[in-house]
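Example for tutorial group B:
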């Protein structure tokens, strides 16, 4: 059908409106048949047939045009429509002729029957070859758009590019018929190849009308074939390769076509070229300075892709000009120091001190220098606007930072009220091997268009070294490009040769404008190389001898571009040297200043500063977590009631029973697990604290207990969220089902929690041990974030746990793994004081709890906000207890004056502790199994059951007191899990420390 519409302009220009409607109804395969049949149509106001646009008919058209100019009403309506649509190129006597213009008669040839008023000559015959040639030109244009990137000259080393002489000017290459013909055959599909094989040298001068799907003509509508091919080559097969034709939006495809096909679209002023040169000089000079001063240090430099720094700055410049005020960046280690220095403009002396091995002046164990992040507010001198830049700290797990950046970006957009991402955006940098090899890349990109996770477009920059450590691409991926994963989200992919700075700048400009226009992801693939090994002390010739022989003979991009500008007369050799010397002097001065530093400060590297959060607070005082009963009743009633317009909002009958049961509990002033959670959330919302709950099926709850989103049973997408309608001035509540991802979504929520400390951010696993696919986030960010980067987070992880016969991967949340990563000493009993509990929380890296009552869960959630600092919280949530008749709490356990209980003693045996023969310590839901067994065996007076609700930090003081209460009792630990799982290996040495090993504990 595409071909049918295009052929219409070639064959029947004057009747194109009516005839077009006719063609659009016909299959493309019947095009020729229909055109031939159309030749039998009678001419309007014509007495005889003649060859189409012969000498007399072309004069006739010019005469008609003259008449139309004098009086449009004097010609037939079809001629009027034709001339008004600018479909006619007037002769020189009537209108200016554009360059390369050929009169319509010459363009169409003399083999078609004359046409007027929507018809063709009687007895005329369509020239099949002419139609095929025009269709072939259309196919050529489309083929270049689809496959031109396959033969673009993207590789600076010339190893993987098409076999071209890089020194030959493009315009000379295009003029070679033999070259272009061969090139076309590489680009087009098999079905069009037969058409093209018949073309001759003479065909290169034939003129064809350009379709609406190309912008290579600029203002010209007709071009010779040679010019068409030359412009397509420049647009798609030079130093830029564009992948975009898989995008299913015509508007977006045309937007991209226009920015790469328009003639002379990629032009730069002399001032712009000098700016590119200066930025490239700084990027190159920084690496050279570090190599000179710290020759034996690993720094994972940018040599071979120094253009990345000007590229990032161009993205930032254009985005800032378009309204962006804050940019959050995530990147692997390669080039990080250069980004900090030349993109963020972090003080150079702070970077240089990282090489000195100084002790820290503040908390934190630190990480290697090329893992650290930063936060900078500065003036963008190009746009004269203020910009906030954050580089998120990232360990060696490369792409693990991707979802963290996205969550942080989304949170900042949320708190700024930036619903379209116009003020806050993210930039992610990737290595080529990691981008295609790490699954979290897909998990993160898969979030890009989800309503509660989108950041409204991310600019991805791939530093494509064409090698991963020592593995070449043939062994590291199955796809043609490392960027193919981006195709699944319809993101355009711009490949560009890293040794052509102006091409890179153009791609970056287009990418930034794309993101600002469509708010969708875009990929910039900077094809470059790695001049050194994986790190500066690695020998790459061991494994890539041929590649590195080529690299040794390749000039740095700075030298190539400087020579280009010198030859163009833009700069002189003296000016190039002056820029280099000036930056080296800046580095030398910073280096001398760094020598005066005696300590490093980790606070200089915080990527998420919480301005004002810690000031004016007692670091050892917890705000009350109890609330007045009136608040509990109000929240409970709203949460247990159908929507106000219940008569129109049809609720599932099963939910009506759930709401009725909640109402009944409220009347008895008791709550179950779901009510406790809702009251904790609701009371925080009342206090102005934003609450966000995310994960797989959290809106309803995996176990159908939560129901925070009620669905209209007869109207699609009609929902009601009770917790969003508690108070007129409450904080917003976000509850959102996530994609089926743990790694990506947990990272996202972690990033979200890092942005604002005054928010409760919760992630719930569908089943507890599903967290194992997010283990990288847990290990590298959640458990160790504060120790590495002085970065606190109050993230809550809700992990359903319980050995209740649901199969091994639906039972244990693997609490032993979390406890193994706790940063406390099992042999150290902290000094006892009134501040014992809060000091423990302050010193631990995270909190692990397994509550047995809804009331304690209520306090645990509220305590996350009541603390004067932030710690991640791991909660082993129940499954069977969600509906267990005995797992209930009274309002009295949550009102003013109550608080979280780290340990719940046995109330039944408290009156006669000396009679107790055994004290069983446990945690979580197993308590109710033990309770039933004790009751069934009538051992209520002989056995005490004590529940440790907060496992880590371990409640030494309470355990010590509880053991002392029962002097004659045997001390036992009970758990559901096997002995080498669960809490046993964690609690055993701590019990010994708590009771000072004076009694046997087993």
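The residue assignment follows.
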């Amino acid at each position: 059908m595409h071909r049918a519409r295009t052929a219409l302009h070639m064959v029947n220009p004057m009747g194109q409106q009516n005839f077009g409607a006719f063609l659009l109804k016909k299959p493309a395969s019947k095009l020729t048949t229909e055109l031939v049949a159309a030749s039998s149509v009678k001419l309007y106001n014509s007495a005889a047939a003649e060859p189409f646009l012969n000498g007399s008919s072309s004069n006739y058209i010019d005469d008609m045009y003259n008449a139309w100019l004098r009086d449009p009403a004097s010609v037939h309506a079809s001629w009027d429509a034709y001339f008004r649509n600018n479909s006619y190129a007037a002769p020189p006597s009537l209108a200016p002729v554009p360059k390369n213009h050929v009169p319509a008669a010459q363009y169409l040839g003399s083999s078609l029957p004359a046409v007027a008023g929507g018809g063709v000559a009687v007895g005329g015959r369509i020239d099949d070859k002419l139609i095929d040639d025009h269709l072939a030109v259309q196919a050529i244009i489309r083929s270049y758009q689809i496959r031109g990137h396959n033969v673009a000259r993207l590789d600076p080393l010339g190893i993987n590019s098409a076999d071209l002489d890089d020194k030959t000017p493009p315009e000379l290459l295009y003029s070679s018929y033999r070259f272009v013909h061969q090139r076309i055959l590489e680009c087009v599909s098999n079905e069009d190849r037969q058409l093209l094989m018949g073309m001759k040298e003479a065909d290169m001068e034939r003129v064809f009308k350009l379709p609406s799907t190309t912008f290579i003509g600029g203002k010209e509508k007709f071009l010779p074939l040679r010019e068409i091919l030359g412009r397509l080559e420049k647009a798609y097969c030079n130093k830029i390769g564009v992948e975009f034709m898989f995008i299913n939006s015509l508007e977006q495809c045309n937007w991209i076509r226009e920015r790469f096909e328009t003639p002379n679209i990629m032009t730069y002023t002399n001032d712009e070229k000098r700016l590119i040169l200066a930025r490239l000089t700084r990027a190159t000079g920084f690496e050279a300075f570090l190599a000179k001063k710290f020759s034996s240090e690993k720094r994972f430099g940018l040599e071979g892709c120094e253009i990345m720094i000007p590229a990032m700055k161009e993205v930032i410049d254009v985005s800032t000009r378009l309204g962006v005020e804050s940019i959050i960046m995530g990147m692997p280690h390669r080039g990080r120091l250069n980004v900090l220095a030349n993109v963020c403009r972090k003080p150079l002396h702070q970077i240089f001190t990282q090489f000195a091995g100084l002790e820290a002046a503040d908390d934190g164990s630190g990480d290697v220098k090329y893992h650290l992040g930063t936060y900078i507010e500065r003036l963008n001198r190009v746009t004269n606007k203020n910009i906030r830049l954050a580089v998120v700290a990232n360990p060696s797990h490369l792409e693990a930072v991707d979802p963290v950046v996205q969550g942080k970006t989304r949170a900042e957009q949320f708190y700024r009220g930036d619903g379209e991402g116009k003020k806050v955006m993210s930039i992610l940098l990737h290595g080529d091997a990691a981008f295609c090899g790490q699954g979290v890349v897909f998990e993160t990109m898969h979030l890009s268009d989800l309503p509660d996770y989108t950041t409204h477009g991310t600019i991805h920059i791939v530093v494509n070294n064409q090698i991963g450590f020592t593995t070449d691409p043939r062994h590291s991926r199955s796809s043609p490009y490392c960027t193919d994963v981006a195709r699944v989200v319809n993101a355009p992919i711009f490949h560009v040769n890293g040794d052509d700075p102006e091409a890179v700048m153009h791609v970056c400009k287009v990418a930034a404008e794309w993101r600002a226009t469509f708010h969708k992801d875009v990929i910039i693939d900077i094809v470059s190389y790695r001049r050194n090994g994986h790190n500066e002390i690695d020998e790459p010739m061991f494994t890539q001898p041929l590649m590195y022989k080529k690299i040794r003979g390749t000039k740095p991009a700075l030298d190539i571009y400087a020579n280009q500008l010198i030859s163009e007369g833009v700069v002189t050799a003296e000016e190039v040297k002056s820029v280099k010397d000036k930056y080296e002097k800046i580095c030398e001065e910073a280096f001398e200043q760094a020598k005066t530093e005696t300590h490093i400060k980790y606070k200089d590297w915080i990527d998420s500063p919480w301005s004002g959060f810690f000031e004016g607070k007692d670091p050892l005082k917890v705000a009350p977590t109890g609330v007045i009963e009136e608040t509990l009743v109000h929240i409970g009633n709203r949460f247990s009631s159908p929507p106000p317009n219940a008569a129109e909002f049809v609720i599932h009958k099963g939910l009506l029973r759930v709401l009725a049961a909640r109402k009944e509990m409220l009347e008895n002033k008791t709550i179950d697990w779901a009510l406790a959670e809702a009251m904790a959330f609701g009371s925080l919302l009342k206090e102005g604290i934003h609450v966000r709950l995310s994960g797989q099926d959290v809106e309803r709850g995996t176990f159908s207990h939560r129901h925070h989103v009620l669905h209209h049973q007869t109207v699609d997408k009609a929902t009601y969220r009770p917790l969003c309608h508690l108070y007129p001035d409450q904080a917003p509540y976000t509850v959102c089902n996530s994609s089926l991802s743990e790694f990506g979504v947990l990272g996202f929520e972690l990033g979200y929690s890092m942005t604002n400390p005054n928010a409760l951010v919760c992630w719930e696993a569908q089943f507890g041990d599903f967290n194992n696919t997010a283990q990288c986030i847990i290990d590298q960010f959640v458990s160790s974030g504060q120790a590495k980067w002085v970065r606190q987070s109050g993230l809550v992880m809700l992990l359903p746990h319980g050995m209740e016969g649901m199969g091994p991967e639906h039972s244990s949340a693997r609490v032993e793994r979390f406890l193994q990563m706790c940063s406390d000493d099992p042999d150290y009993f902290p000094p006892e004081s009134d501040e014992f509990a809060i000091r423990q929380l302050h010193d631990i890296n995270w909190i692990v709890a397994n509550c047995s009552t809804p009331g304690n869960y209520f306090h645990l959630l509220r305590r996350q906000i009541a603390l004067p600092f932030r710690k991640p919280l791991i909660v082993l949530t129940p499954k069977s207890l969600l509906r267990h008749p005995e797992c209930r709490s009274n309002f009295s356990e949550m009102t003013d004056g109550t608080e979280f209980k780290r340990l719940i003693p046995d109330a039944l045996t408290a009156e006669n502790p000396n009679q107790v023969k055994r004290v069983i310590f446990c945690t979580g839901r197993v308590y109710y199994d033990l309770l039933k067994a004790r009751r069934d065996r009538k051992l209520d007076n002989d056995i005490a059951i004590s529940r440790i609700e907060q496992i880590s930090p371990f409640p030494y003081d309470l355990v010590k007191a509880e053991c002392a209460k029962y002097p004659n009792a045997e001390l036992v630990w009970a758990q559901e899990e096997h002995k080498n799982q669960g809490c046993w290996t964690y609690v055993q040495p701590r019990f010994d420390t708590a009771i000072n090993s004076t009694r046997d504990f087993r």
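Residues 415 and 756 are 8 Å apart (CA to CA). Compare this with the pattern of hydrophobic and polar residues in the output above.
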